[in-house]
Write a structure and sequence with these properties.
By secondary structure, the protein is of the alpha+beta class. The chain is built from 4 helices and 3 strands. The protein starts with a helix and ends in a 5-residue tail after the last helix.
Length: 86
């Protein structure tokens, strides 16, 4: 009984947390968690949390982010090519 309960729980977690393409676009108002620069990369964590990084720190931590994040959204290019409207 216990084993089947655990499997049911695992399947439920997997089906509800991994949804590629659900990360919101990075807003110019959002800031890098490390240095406070304008964020360009959003990493969505399995627990539903998010990490924000500037392009510099996003690339610096890219390997670790890919290991832990369910989704990584890189809006660096979008932000760079968007005309800087304040
Ligand atoms: Zn940074």
């Amino acid at each position: 009984m216990e084993a089947s309960d655990r499997f049911g729980c695992l399947i439920d977690v997997m089906s509800t947390t991994i949804k590629p393409g659900t990360a919101s676009p990075v807003s110019p108002a959002e800031r890098c968690d490390r240095c406070g620069a304008r964020a360009a990369i959003r990493a969505v964590l399995p627990g539903g949390g998010e990490l924000l990084f500037c392009a510099h720190h996003g690339r610096l931590h890219a390997k670790q982010l890919r290991a832990v994040a369910t989704e990584i959204r890189d809006d660096a290019q979008v932000l760079e090519t968007t005309p800087g409207s304040a």
